[in-house]
Each structure stands twice: as structure tokens, then as C-alpha cells.
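Case 225 in the screening queue. Each case pairs one protein sequence with one candidate compound; here the compound is magnesium ion. For every case the pipeline is the same: read the inputs, emit a complex structure as C-alpha cells, and attach any notable structural observations.

Predict complex for case 225.
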Amino acid sequence: MALRGVIFDLDGTLIDSRLDFDAMRREMGFPEGQLILEGVAALPDGERRERCLTILHEHERRGAESATLMPGAQDMLAGLSARGFPLAILTRNSRAMTQLALQRLQLEFSHVLTREDAPPKPDPAGLWHICQAWQLSVDEVIFVGDYRFDLVAGRAAGIATVLYAPDGPPDYAKEADFVVGDLRDVIRIAALLAEPNRASAASAWFPPAESGESLPRHPRTGFDR
Ligand SMILES: [Mg+2]
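Case 225 output:
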């Protein structure tokens, strides 16, 4: 089947919220490397959990208020929209902060699923939900994200993945169907996969348009870590 829709992760893929997860963990009293959403969810009801939620929401609010678009995101979204692809977001962020960031940056999507709307990635349920809403099968969409959870969710859903790796491919890049260093290359991939015979669309590394050295570096953001 040919490609007909594109789903995106939000933080680190379309926007940079500059969320400081190490600071969040310190303020919450979590050890290094603890996944924040999962850590808070595992806390028993009570004062500590409430305090952690307040810390989380405050960081998220500041992130949404200062979020900027990732390089090439605007061009990519415009290019995909011009080709008629419906676009959706699946994020581990909260609904309120996702809406705030999207409003500020004037981004519109046909569907936006947050952690209040679907089990958080790497659970694939949110991806299936969007396919169902679009009335498309899993082989008619791709999922674009910047972290391992995105690749795991895509694979579990049966959906091809595009890893956005502006700093070069990480060790888990082999788990992606495609890897791009420049978001605008997603337009090329989508156009390729939209051809009726996608057998010719082999997995590929799409190198950045410019040399890697000249690309701005971005810290990974989002509730991936
Ligand atoms: Mg991300």
C-alpha cells in the first residue's frame, strides 16, 4: 500500500522545549536515568507525588512557553501538507502543554494524542488510534521521531519509522526504517513511499543537506529520558 499519512513525535522532533530532565529528577529526588513519567506514576498517592506533579507541570509550562521549532520543521510540515498528507502528533507530553506549544508556534494537525489520550509510548496504542481515526492501515502511515521509544512504538504498531538524528545516527538508529539528519528529507521519503510500488523504497540513510559539522546541535528533549 502507498503512504497516505504522517505521524510525528513532538519534543526533539518538531519542537525544542529545552526541558531539563536532570533538573527535574534532582528536584523530584529521582536517581539519574529514572524515566520521569513512569517514576511519578509509580509513586503512591500523597504529598511526594503531588510535589513531583507540581514540579513536572511547572517545567512543562516553561517548556511550552519557550518552545521553538526544530530546524526545517516548518518547511517539512508545509511540504507534506501541500502534498495532501494528513499530519498527526503522538506525544508523552500533557495535553495542556502540548496545546499551548502548538498554539504559540501556530502548528495545526488533524489529530494530537497526548499522555491523557493514549498510553504513553513505547506503547503502540496511540499510533493505532490515529490510523483508525484516519481510516488508514498501518502500512499507509509512517512515524517520525527522535528517540528509541518512537522506534519501539512504531515497530510494535507495525508502522515504518523515520528517526530524526540531527547530530548523526545514534546506536539505536538500526532499529529505524529511515534515518534523516534534516527534517526536510522526510518530504523526499514520503514522496517515495507514496508511489504505488513501494518495493523500490529501500531503507536508507538520508544525510544532512549540508555537512554535519555545519549543522546546529540540539540537545534531545521530550519525555524520552
Ligand atoms: Mg522526542
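Case 225 observations:
- The radius of gyration is 17 Å.
- The pocket of magnesium ion is lined by residues 9, 11-13, 145-147, 222, 224 (CB under 6 Å).
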